Amino acid sequence: xxxxxxxxxxxxxxxxxxxxxxxxxxxxxxxxxxxxxxxxxxxxxxxxxxxxxxxxxxxxxxxxxxxxxxxxxxxxxxxxxxxxxxxxxxxxxxxxxxxxxxxxxxxxxxxxxxxxxxx
Length: 119
Description:
By secondary structure, this protein is an all-beta fold. It has strands at about 1-5, 10-15, 20-25, 30-40, 45-50, 55-60, 65-70, 75-80, 90-100, 105-110, 115-119.
């Protein structure tokens, strides 16, 4: 079992910044990659940013140059630094962990944290 606890969401004006944190606990050494997804009302959940155990990162085109994903050295915590926020960034942001256990893939989700960007 992997538990993901998120923090850092809130209300910010357009152009501002927020930093989301996701603390992982449990079988964290089975994790191969972690990421951040977001979902706005009426829209599908989409990948915002991901990071692998080797440190490779990828981003949605809509956030490139504005968001940065990172992790601590023990992979206990993953961060999403969000700069130059726009109203279109308003969504519930979910932390995700993917991995393998006894050859079987697993995926865990955090509870989600609301990010609201006002005009």
